[in-house]
């Protein structure tokens, strides 16, 4: 495992606990979860009615429940509670800073303004017949109205299902149909990289598919460039079921009493990225999710009053739910919402925003870091990034090369990099370092969050590994041993799938689907997906390790490796690489790349085939879809599986042709 222990130092702590104190508190949270979570829930949330029990149910039946009998409302906790805590101050505090596609398109909204608008939207939804428990599908760009629409749903107990606004009409139709949503909320257009995306047209198209035409009663449309004139002609063709959102909202009362929700009432539905198969529609409930979102945001990012917390993920993914909307607002912080891309108008966009807004915590994905790293150090160096304290990463294993760039160039060797490992299913971080508390190791998500009982299982026996390998490490299946409040409760309409995917593979454990290596200090390194593990001549090889070795070469911008059947070795390694701008594919370069893998890891990992490609098959959330590459190298191109979340489907044919020529 490529680690750099020299960088494993502890930073001056703002959180006033030590590593030993964290360990002690973590131990208590595992041994006596009742006491830990009961105290946490009372401290971090306001309850209309106290809960009777902390937690009940089992992994076996998939009936885990938290804070039973308790009543609360998430929008109340995110807004009213914040204002109520300190009426003079909080009400004028900025809840949300938004920067649109164009850098000068900026909006700032106070807690008071957000509360009023959320109440108006909530009343508008009631007016349109939405009731507690109804699932509202939301297909919107990253504008403040999206966050406020989500909060308005929670205000009245409606369940939101946010569909990433980059999805096709087909994918949207599937999600509308699965949710049986009578109300769909969208916008006329979305803006990205200087282009407009005609969301309303895509919605219209989706309503002609499956059974959507008969399900959807109302389409509520936000207008991006609405001028306040209700009589004006909307910039799209209106049908009988369309309702203009701005004029409807404007006439509503700016207060709406919060619905008293049971802790286990449904809060939202959200689909996974679809990296390993057909996306799973997961259901999260109210009390446990809210508590977990709040605590992980506060503790993993070391939030303090006055911070400006920027998570640049889209609300179409769980990262946007937990760390753009719910976590920061439940903490009374200021959240930053971003509509555009990291390279618009140029590759300095993120750093320009950090400088202009004085962002203190910045949270993105390895794919963005790798992309920006390949443009060189000039862009970040041009800006004053001294406001930054914590840099977060999520979504895929981060290769040490990118980690170091993030840490040294962006963070000026002065910020904590938090490598947060978690999933749509976990609701919030499950393994992450804590700033000022946990030492950092590049490429390691380090130690579990409070209440998370992490286990490394032998993939064959399903038992916890007790004997380390020759390096003193424990390598196996990443599993969790006991329930935590933020866990998803079921798959929408398919509880069998929930049990089959997460709880039946290794009875007694929650199965993450990932493989991990735990080192001698108990630190975790995610080495890839279970399905992606390659076995060469009896050596189990994680994709992350080989990809890291490739990306460490300056010529490689992104890399993905998969196994290919091999008569003698069992599997051979096949690597797909995207070159950095300015590099060309030559036999010498390919030889050099093979050489770097050989020296970094060992001869047994040398790729048999290296395919240079203009891009990789990625999910729309920016993750590599190795299963597609595996199918291509195995020649099984007629059974590629679910490709609905593929960002650019045209790359598949390009790769099929290229691999066909090489093999
Ligand atoms: P699907 O479940 O549909 O295949 P997905 O697993 O990519 O898609 P998400 O829930 O968005 O959907 O992603 C969770 C996965 O992302 C984790 O299981 C893990 O593989 C990866 N991941 C997230 N954070 C990290 C991290 N910090 N380090 C390593 N891997 C990570
Ligand atoms: Mg997954």
Features:
663 residues; alpha/beta; eight-stranded mixed beta sheet; seven-stranded mixed beta sheet; 21% strand; binds adenosine-5'-triphosphate; binds magnesium ion; ATP binding; AMP-bd_C
Would you give an account of this structure?
It is built from 21 helices and 30 strands. By secondary structure, it is an alpha/beta fold. Strand 6, helix 6 and strand 7 form a beta-alpha-beta unit. The longest helix is centred in the N-terminal third of the chain and has 17 residues. The radius of gyration is 24 Å and the shape is globular. The N terminus is likely disordered. Bound molecules: adenosine-5'-triphosphate (ATP) and magnesium ion (MG). Magnesium ion binds next to loops. The site of magnesium ion (MG) has 4 residues, from loops.
